[in-house]
TrEMBL record:
It comes from Candida parapsilosis. It comes from the Eukaryota. Keywords: Nucleus, Repeat, rRNA processing. This is U3 small nucleolar RNA-associated protein 6 family protein. Transmembrane segments: none annotated. Residues 9-95 form the U3 small nucleolar RNA-associated protein 6 N-terminal domain. Belongs to the UTP6 family. The keyword Repeat applies. It is found in: Nucleus, Nucleolus. InterPro entries: HAT, TPR-like_helical_dom_sf, Utp6, UTP6_N. The lineage of its organism: Eukaryota, Fungi, Dikarya, Ascomycota, Saccharomycotina.
């Protein structure tokens, strides 16, 4: 253990000498830094080490790095420090990552260590390191749904890599098919992606497929999985327009919906409808129609199917109020159901309308549910 501690401490000597030469820290401060590092190294290499020892060590180094940057900025303004790049400029960040890397290897099940490591790597723009961390984390914890969601979010929002994001969601679902959060996040990603893609192409005038081919995605090493899930190809074509390419119309989202309902049942249907509600720029009627047709085929006798059929015309506006009422009356005439009536009345009472609409809704409620 002593040899290992000595080895790690010796690695920091050039950095400390550079800090002293630049005048950022004096001899006494350098001695204090070495003493603290020695103490921390003994703690984390000992048999009784704990995850918080690594966190405290990284916190000390992080505070030290902040102090170095503050002094460097102040002294460089008055020309009292050599601004030529040297080892102390990057050694602090590398040391902190090395400490956290060692911590995650010794305590692979500690979520706080992984979170700290990821946050620090992201904050410092270390994309390759972030990929390495996520790859290790997902290999070690394939059932960690939060890790899959975090990796997918990073891949899409930070790296704008749709193919990589799709692969993450699909692999995560094959390993965690029971996770509703993964299903819904994957579905939301697909709608968000085509919405942004179509808006961008419209803005830039990328109308032909040859122009669109120039849009490229640049992967994490993911754990393997065997499953019967029938998910879309991650490398699908996104060329063309909604009229020529069903993927741009929302068919990928609908494929996810079909598979999710098979796996999770009717309870997730409303959550998918809520996702569709949020995308005004897409053909929502096309998406709604598929959902309705699916549940009418698979759950024809479920009261929820009737309720969705009745209320679809008024999900996003009041324009379909008359159609909604007519559908309800048709269901009522065919099979009177007090529960369905109460559900529809509650839905009508939730409608936000102007002074003309409110009296109309009250009249409708009295008609369909007389006291």
């Amino acid at each position: 253990m002593a040899d290992k501690v000595r080895y790690y401490l010796e690695q920091s000597v050039p950095e400390l000498e550079d800090l002293k030469v630049k005048g950022l820290f004096d001899k006494n401060e350098i001695t204090m830094i070495m003493r603290r590092r020695t103490d921390f190294e003994h703690r984390i290499t000992g048999r009784g080490s704990r995850p918080r020892d690594y966190l405290k060590y990284s916190e000390f180094e992080n505070n030290l790095e902040k102090l170095r940057k503050k002094r460097y900025t102040r002294l460089s303004k008055v020309g009292l420090v050599d601004t030529k790049p040297s080892i102390s400029d990057w050694a602090g960040v590398r040391r902190i990552m090395f400490i956290l890397d060692r911590g995650t290897k010794k305590f692979p099940g500690d979520q706080q260590l992984w979170a700290e490591y990821l946050t620090y790597a992201k904050d410092n723009g270390a994309i390759k390191v972030v990929y390495k961390i996520y790859s290790r984390l997902l290999q070690l914890q394939p059932r960690n749904v939060d890790a899959w969601l975090s990796a997918a979010k990073y891949e899409f929002e930070t790296n704008a890599n749709a193919k990589g994001t799709r692969l993450l969601f699909q692999r995560g679902l094959r390993l965690n098919p029971e996770s509703t959060a993964l299903w819904l996040s994957y579905a939301q990603f697909e709608l968000t992606y085509i919405s942004k893609l179509l808006a961008r192409r419209k803005l830039l005038g990328l109308l032909t497929e040859s122009e669109q081919k120039k849009e490229t995605d640049d992967m994490m090493i993911l754990p393997q999985a065997e499953t019967t899930l029938n998910l879309p190809d991650a490398d699908m074509s996104m060329l063309g327009s909604p009229e020529t390419n069903p993927a741009l119309k929302g068919d990928v989202f609908l494929a996810i919906f079909d598979e999710c309902v098979k796996a999770k049942g009717f309870d997730v249907v409303e959550k998918f409808l809520h996702l569709i509600d949020q995308f005004e720029d897409l053909d929502r009627d096309y998406l709604y129609s598929h959902v309705l047709n699916y549940i009418q085929r698979e759950y024809p006798d479920d009261i929820g199917t009737a309720f969705i059929d009745i209320t679809l015309p008024i999900r996003t506006s009041n324009d379909g109020l008359q159609l909604s009422v007519n559908k309800f009356l048709a269901y009522k005439a065919k099979n009177p159901n007090k529960e369905l009536t109460n559900m529809f009345v509650n839905k009508l009472m939730q409608i936000d309308g102007n002074e003309k609409v409110k009296p109309l809704i009250q009249a409708i409620i009295k008609k369909i549910n007389p006291a």
